[in-house]
Amino acid sequence: MSKSRGNVVNPDAYFDRLGADTLRMYLVFLGPYDRGGEFSDTGIGGVRRFLGRVWDLVLRHADRLVDGSAPLDARRSLHRTIQAVTQDLEELRYNTAVAALMTYLNTLQERDSVHGEEVAGLLLLLAPFAPHLAEELWARLGKPYSIHQQQFPVASAAVLEVETLPVAVQVNGRTRGLVQLAPQASEAEALEAARHIDAARTALEQASVTRVIYVPRRVINLVSKE
Length: 226
Fold this sequence. Notes:
It is elongated and about 70 Å long. Helix 1 packs across helix 2. It has 10 helices and 4 strands; from the N terminus they run H-H-H-H-H-H-H-H-E-E-H-H-E-E. The protein has a 4-stranded mixed β-sheet, covered by helices on one side. It is α+β, with helices and mostly antiparallel strands. It folds into 2 domains: 158 residues, Orthogonal Bundle (Isoleucyl-tRNA Synthetase, Domain 1), CATH 1.10.730.10; 60 residues, Ubiquitin-like (UB roll), CATH 3.10.20.590.
């Protein structure tokens, strides 16, 4: 925003209308810390809606949060978010940290029930960006004062360990072996793993593979010239 170009945005109006948390969070979400971005009413409205969704989610589940540890897949999703936000904060990538929180909120909203540790984790990660809203929701959950005096979440290496599944390696539809791959493994990762199977490695080294058919979690089929 440049005064010389006459396009300065006065933050007071947005502060009064949308609140400090929305303005604060939008400013760090605009773009990379060292480059900023273009201020727009559409963009700040999106952040306002995000915070509204956080508010609705917490209040909707406040009286029926599931006790105890969440299922492993749910905990893994939480700890991936903790890891991403922590790394982004340390490297001043505030915009991508906010994006990670938005993605995690979408994950929670898709479920009929959530565990207490998931909501608490979301609020603790949100606190640096929306301190007032996080504090209010923390209090409404009956948590000890103040959210800003609590330990910041730490990602668990044990929870983040990647599970693997057996994936069949085929050449022209015939199974030649099995490789262990993460459920989210890309085609490139599957191809690299397939090189450990002799028939697949030979086909790849001879550049005779004309097509790759990859079905995550199940099979990678190398179609080669006969």
